[in-house]
UniProtKB/TrEMBL annotation:
It comes from Streptomyces lycii. Belongs to the IlvD/Edd family. Residues 44-355 form the Dihydroxy-acid/6-phosphogluconate dehydratase N-terminal domain. The keyword Metal-binding applies. InterPro entries: Dihydro-acid_dehy_C, DiOHA_6PGluconate_deHydtase_CS, ILV_EDD_C, ILV_EDD_N, IlvD/EDD_N, Sugar_Degrad_Dehydratases. NCBIfam families: PRK06131.1, PRK13017.1. The lineage of its organism: Bacteria, Bacillati, Actinomycetota, Actinomycetes, Kitasatosporales. This is Dihydroxy-acid dehydratase. Coiled coil: none annotated. SUPFAM superfamilies: IlvD/EDD N-terminal domain-like, LeuD/IlvD-like.
Amino acid sequence: MPEGDKAVEQRRSAAWFGLDGKLGFVHRSKLYNRGGSGSMFDGRPVIGIANSASDLAPCNAHLGQVAEAVKRGVLMAGGVPMEFPTISLGETLMRPSAMLFRNLMAMDVEETLRANPLDGVVLLGGCDKTVPAQVMGALSVDLPTVVVTGGPALNGRFRGESIGSGTHVWKFSEEVRAGRMTQCEFRSAEACLSRSAGHCTTMGTASTMACVTEALGLSLPGSAVIPAVDAGRARIAEQAGQRIVAMVEEGLAPSRLLDRRSFENAVRVNAAIGGSTNAVVHLLAMAGRAEVALALDDFDRLAASVPLLVDLMPSGRFLMEEFHDAGGLPAVIRELGDLLDRDAMTVTGRTLGENCADAPNWRPDVVRTRKDPVAEPGSHTAVLRGNLAPDGAVIKLSAASPQLTRHTGPALVFDTIEDYDAAKDSPDLPVTPDTVLVVRNAGPVGYPGMPEIGNLAIPRKMLDQGVRDMVRVTDGRMSGTSYGTVVLHVAPEAAAGGPLALLRDGDRVTLDVPGRRLETDVPDEELAARAPKDSVSGGLRNRPAPGSGWASLYRSHVNQADTGADLDFLTGRRGHAVPRRHL
Ligand code: FES
Ligand code: MG
């Protein structure tokens, strides 16, 4: 290491590679097995590349190629790239729910970063939970961080038309149930949906999290929407590799970039893109890690002035390829103009406004103007409260039927999603178009892991009558690719002593979106009389969860959805002080 260079001496990796004696020997010697020279240890920034590639997470399977491009960039800029694997979370394969493991993945990333000789990190994720998990972990460590997502897949194509991830699965399966599509056609559609490497093509959770991460200022401008197989994906990855080296020199850690303004921007961008309701949970958790005050109600209040600009499924017509053609997120940010705080800082070292000042919009049919939006302001997220959701619940209005957003009807309550599935096609199901379908015990503690079961299939009896949407209520989540009048994230959840546990069949439930209410007219005294003792005192949440292993730890410590469903002992920053080591 060159002597007398203060910045280099203070570099974190110097506490490993700059050491004399046997510890320095041990830290360095094994790395010579890569065939490199001692220049690895001359004080260059050491850059971690956190790679969540996995055959079990098909959306992330190509991230090895992205990592190669990042490495190229790091080397070009004079850094030392160190790629390492992280846990990966594949939305389509994991059971009971990938969400059960988001916080585990965040722990993996956090502990790996802190325990190793890293000065900065590039996070490579894609599939829904992988990006928030990596960001949560990295924010708790607070080393210079750039996010590079894997990018969306090419549009699915079926019978000459574009079909969207998730969204068309729900559409087709309803068509099969309604007898308008054969099983054979359904199976052939299956092979046409995922045409290439990359994550979901709709504005589901993966695309949403890529966009809100860019809006937060944690990824390079324009990077969120570039298709996985576009050469531009490798180009931006290479640029990120170059940029992270400079960020280490500049000491540009997330705590110097992210503040309340960044999160407000992310919440507003989520509304403008018609983003997933899952962004609510993930952004709350990320803000918790960054020690920025962000509350559930902010999602309603901040989104109220933001029109829906991006015409993508499930709220609109197009897919991520068209969004990329249009110019990507910078076009949206520029169009949002003074609705955002353009002075928020980003990884480029410039502000969000500076990054996007000249962003073109090549497809005004995809990224619409504020004068001619897809939907008027206030059509995105509403936060509901009431005696069924004292700590809040969420509804995505752009996915809901306007005529159902003010509705009172009798509850039909199911204790598990399996119970609902077994009953939904029965001709004896006591259901009318007015029925409010409730599935509880699908929250973080109850399931466990808060699965995406909220967009309950419409009962066959109703489908036969031509009913396509009904009010549904759950303490679980729904896929970002779903639609319907679905009240989600009810907090506290039934299994944590929430009042949803006390609801009975036939109780009248009112959804009043304009009034922001989710209520039952069952009087408080009657509800109190129904409450089992442990339910009033907090149910499962206040007891050690039964069993052993991760699920038990998770259930004992998970926070409720209204604060992001992080583990209670993981919120906040713990920094990157060099841990002790002795030989
Ligand atoms: Fe991975 Fe949708 S399943 S992004
Ligand atoms: Mg999803």
